[in-house]
Each structure stands twice: as C-alpha cells, then as structure tokens.
Specification:
Layout: E1 24-30, E2 36-40, H1 42-52, H2 64-81, H3 83-94, H4 100-117, H5 125-131, H6 138-150, H7 156-169, H8 172-178, H9 187-194, H10 205-217, H11 229-239, H12 242-250, H13 254-260, H14 265-272, H15 278-284, H16 290-295, H17 297-303, H18 307-317, H19 320-326, H20 330-339, H21 346-356, E3 366-372, H22 389-403, E4 406-412, E5 416-418, H23 427-431, H24 442-449, E6 455-460, E7 482-486, E8 492-493, E9 502-506, H25 510-513, H26 515-520
Parallel strand pairs: 3-4, 3-6, 6-7, 7-9
Antiparallel strand pairs: 1-2, 2-8, 4-5
Helix pairs in contact: 1-2, 2-3, 2-4, 3-4, 4-5, 5-7, 7-9, 9-10, 12-13, 20-21
C-alpha cells in the first residue's frame, strides 16, 4: 500500500496534530473493571473487534456468544450505514488481516443486512461474498454458516458470489485436500446449491466439476479427468494394493510421487493403513507447508525422523522468505517453541519468530513500552490456542523495545516493574522475565514510569481500573504521543483516541506496525485498506 510503504519517510517531531482512524466520541461509560471507559464510534468498535475476533471465542469479560452477536450487529448496521467502508474492511480482514472465520461471518451478515434493508446502492453483494473467499474449502464454510443461520434458501447474490469463488478456487489438488467426508458441504454439494458453471478460460474445469459431483453422489463409479495429472496420479496410488504401498514411500522417488499425487500428510496415514513411521514422514515432509511442519514437530520426534530430515525441515521453518510467505502471527511460533519436544527445534523456531517480527518499527529517541500483564489478559487468544493475550502482548512489547533506539520496557497490573533486556537479545529470552501481576492499574504505571520519553506505547485490553484522573494517559504531556495497542476488541477504550497525540491501533498486521512512523512523520493515518 503506497500510503504506508513509501521510501524516504523521515521521522521527525510532528508539526501538526495528525489524526488516526480509531476514534472515541467523547461519551463516557463504566468499563468492566469499574473504571472510566471511552465510547468509540461504530466503525472503530467494529475494526478493533474484527482484528481480535476468532469467533465463538470466550474472553475474560465477554462470552463467545455475546462477542459474536456484537460483531454481527455492528456488521449489519454498518453494511447499511456505510457499505463501502464495511466492504473494504471485510476484504482487508481476509487478506492482510489473515482472519478467516471473522471475514466469512462478516460477509454473510453484510449481505443479509443489505438484502433485508432493500439496499441497492454501494458495493455489489456478490462481490463482497467473493472477496472473503480465498481458500477452496471456504465456499462450503460460508454456506454452512448461512444455512445454519438463515436456512437453505440462498439469495442470488450469495449463490453468484460463491459460484465466482468456486470457479476461481476449485482445482484437482484442492479437491484432494478439502473435499473430505468430514465436511458438511462437499464440493459437489456446493456446485449443486450455487449452480456454478465452469470458467470457459480454464480448460478441463467442466470435467473437474463433473468429477466432484460424481465423488459426492456416485463415489464407486467416479473417474477423475484424464487430463488432470494430479488426480490421475492420486487414483493410481489409491488403486495400489495395501501391501505394496509402503514400498512406494520408502523406494526411490517416493517423495516425488507422493507430491505429484497431491498426497497430504493428513491423508498419508489412511492410505498406508499403518503407522506414520520415520520413512513415511521423511517422504511427505518435502511437500508439507511451513506451518504444517511446525505443527508436527512432536510427531517427527516420536517417529524417529533422522537428523538429516529434521535439519531440512528446520531450514524451511526458519527461512525468512518462507516465514514471510506463511504470514503467521508471531505467537504461532511462540506456541510451537514452548511445546517443542526436543532442543533441535528450539533455534529454528526462535529464528522464525524473529523473522515474523521484522515489521515491528525501529523507533528513534526514547520510548516507554508498557505491557499489560493483568488477570484479564490471560484468557486464550482463541478456543484452540494454547497462548493468551498476556503472552502476545509481551512478545510484541519486547520486540518493540529490542528494536527501538532507547526503550524502557515495563510490565504492569496491580503493580508495575521494569523488565530487563539486553540489546540484540532474543525476544523469547526476554519473555521469560514477565510475570502475572493481577489488576489493571494502567494510570499508576504510566505516571510512575514516564520520565520525559518521546513516546509511550501501551499494549493492553484497555480494561483499566478506576482512577480519579479518568484518562489513564493524563500524566503524559499532550505534546507527547501515546499509542495504545488493543489486543482484545472490547467496546470501551481507556483513553480518548483518534485526535491530537492519542492513538489506538488493533491487530498485528504490517499496516498497523507502520502507523507509528507515519503519524510521527506528521501524516494522518487512514484505515489500512
């Protein structure tokens, strides 16, 4: 995005008071800790909730259902009041934001609200549906959500948007990976529901669609298209007698044959009808994606994968380009590091985490970084995550401090204390020094540790305890920027934002990381899409 990714931006004291998009309205309410909360406008509330929302996620102060209902209600409201902005958010959320389920839910609710309101102007509903579908299993996911909420009658914009995505996403390799019996909507079901015609510019797609329908309704007689090399190679493997299959894996060219046939690691054990031993893993490792490798480190060690194969996997896990392409959040690597079964994975995961934090800005001058380690920050990031917001905040705060020219790193809760670190030290080593500090005395921590810094950064869920000051940043002069990084998406903020030198961000995307240098260059920051 040229707005944020420009050469020649020189950091200097802002000559004006730039604005940022996440804005409070001036209205006050009581937050979940009994402190003063600052109401945000609807767009700001939805943005912060969207970038922190993993759907059906229980948080310390909000149940999963309550949180999802608030998200859906905000999308429905803004789909009618501000359809262009909301469509842009959903498009960005799926791509740069890398939040799959929230964008699918948002796309469905957007279209439902606009159809119910009879809205004709604004972005086409069909295009919005297509914009949130990026992976071949997602058309079925969206239909699963829609039918569970609104029944099996599909309006035309939903049908056409899904059909557009089907033509773009369905391939032989995708069919092997995602068209499984565990899915409520198989590829054939999706094709039947949306009546997707093949793309004339893609030779063989008509045969692929017919095969997907046969796999669903006539599996015993389904024959893959002769022109699809992946599907025909896969069929050849499936027709091998079980007794001959392991020899394919262990023989010369076994890894290449498995890759050519689109054989995933998930499917390999079922095909072998036997254990995933070291030979099986070593054959499929070359075809595995970076995060699939990270998730299977324990399986590799338990199977006895050789040091040579492990070294190849480790090299791919820690490759800077592979880390950038995977676009995984840093805490994914932290989770893997903490649960790695052996020391041979520690250094590659440490390097991968470092690569994933490259977009954290290198700030000049003196910076105060305050990391919230209160009790509410210890709720999981998602229902399936083994990590929590406290650790995500600590990783981000430590990275900011380590990359800054001169930073004081502080953890706070009921009390507060500096977190020591050395220049060039690993983020993971610094993380070990953080603790659990109880309540959320944000104002007291800011007042105690601010000593003429050029900026203050607070990484938090914003649910601060009561203070007579109201605004937790009141002890910092108005001429000094205070940046709040919101990791939870609760409704109320802990201070005003959007004007002057008070700004709030959400998410851990590249666009969010670039906002501090942009604002300090004197330029107002817009939404990242």
């Amino acid at each position: 995005m040229a707005r944020f990714n420009r050469r020649g931006i020189r950091l200097r004291p802002a000559r004006s008071l730039p604005a940022s998009p996440v804005a409070t309205t001036g209205a006050l309410a009581v937050n979940r800790q009994g402190g003063t909360g600052y109401l945000r406008d609807a767009r700001s509330e939805l943005f912060l909730l969207a970038v922190a929302n993993f759907v059906a996620q229980e948080t310390f102060y909000e149940g999963g259902q309550e949180r999802d209902m608030r998200f859906a209600a905000l999308v429905r409201r803004l789909a009618v009041e501000d359809p262009v902005w909301t469509a842009g958010l959903l498009h960005w959320l799926r791509r740069d934001g890398q939040l799959r389920t929230a964008s699918l839910v948002g796309g469905a609710e957007y279209v439902k609200a606009r159809l119910d309101a009879g809205c004709a102007e604004g972005p086409a509903n069909r295009q919005v549906i297509g914009s949130v579908l990026l992976r071949a299993d997602e058309p079925g996911e969206l239909l699963g959500y829609w039918t569970s909420r609104y029944g099996r009658a599909l309006p035309q914009p939903v049908k056409r948007g899904v059909a557009d995505a089907v033509r773009r996403l369905y391939t032989g390799r995708a069919l092997l990976k995602y068209d499984t019996a565990s899915k409520g909507f198989r590829f054939g079901d999706v094709l039947n529901l949306v009546h997707a015609a093949p793309d004339p510019g893609k030779p063989g797609q008509g045969e692929l669609f017919r095969y997907a329908l046969d796999r669903r309704h006539r599996p015993d007689s389904a024959v893959p298209p002769a022109g699809d090399r992946t599907l025909t190679a896969h069929r050849a493997l499936m027709e091998l007698p079980v007794a001959e299959r392991r020899a394919v894996v262990t023989g010369d060219g076994g890894a290449e044959r498995l890759a050519e046939a689109g054989m995933t690691w998930e499917a390999l054990a079922g095909w072998l009808q036997g254990p995933m031993d070291a030979a099986a893993w070593e054959a499929v490792i070359p075809a595995m994606g970076t995060m699939a490798l990270v998730r299977n480190l324990r399986n590799f060690d338990e199977a006895g994968v050789s040091d040579e194969a492990a070294a190849r996997a480790a090299a791919r896990i820690s490759d800077p380009e592979a880390v950038a392409a995977s676009r995984q959040f840093p805490f994914r690597y932290l989770a893997a590091y903490r649960h790695a079964p052996s020391l041979r994975w520690a250094h590659p995961l440490e390097r991968a985490l470092g690569h994933s934090l490259r977009q954290v800005p290198a700030l000049p001058g003196r910076t105060l970084v305050l990391v919230d380690r209160s009790g509410s920050m210890w709720s999981p990031l998602s229902a399936r995550s083994q990590l929590n917001r406290a650790d995500a905040a600590a990783v981000f705060g430590a990275a900011l401090a380590l990359r800054a020219a001169d930073a004081d790193l502080v953890e706070f809760g009921t009390t507060s204390a500096p977190v020591p670190y050395r220049t060039g030290e690993s983020v993971l080593r610094v993380l070990e020094r953080f603790g659990n500090l109880g309540g959320t005395a944000t104002a007291r921590a800011v007042e105690r540790h601010y000593r003429g810094h050029d900026r203050v950064i607070v990484v938090t869920d914003e649910q601060a305890a009561y203070t007579h000051r109201g605004d937790v940043t009141r002890s910092v002069p108005d001429t000094v920027p205070v940046y709040t990084w919101n990791l939870a998406g609760y409704r109320l903020g802990h201070a005003p934002s959007g004007r002057g030198n008070r700004h709030t961000f959400g998410g851990l995307s590249d666009a969010a990381f670039r906002m501090i240098p942009l604002l300090e260059a004197g330029a107002s920051a817009d939404w990242p899409w």
